[in-house]
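Q: Fluoride-specific ion channel FluC, please. Structure only.
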Amino acid sequence: MPNYLQFLIVFLGGGLGSCSRYVVSKVISSQLESIFPWGTFTVNIIGCFLIGIFIGMIQRFQFHPNLTVLLVTGFCGGFTTFSSFSYENYLLLKNSEYLLGLLYTFMSLCWGFAATFLAIFLIRRF
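A: Structure for Fluoride-specific ion channel FluC:
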């Protein structure tokens, strides 16, 4: 049986995350005109850092489980953009931008992992 309160919490967090993604992506894309998808890249790295902060804080301070549902599942799930990342890679490859597609994938993975691990480390350290 689903927990309806948690469903609503995910709904709220996801909506806030999606709206935040839209704003951040639009601002970045308007400032950096390029074939490289800077908006999505930036959102994904910020999202990786945020999920690290949220998980680190939740583990360290043992917050209520609903906060995990709100921040990690809801907000970060709505904020990060793996489907956009996938589609933008498709477009780069379709346009024969092979090196840029490889660079985008590599940078997203490396910086994403680094941001998550850095955030968890910082929360645990301080």
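A: Brief note, in case it's useful. The radius of gyration is 16 Å.
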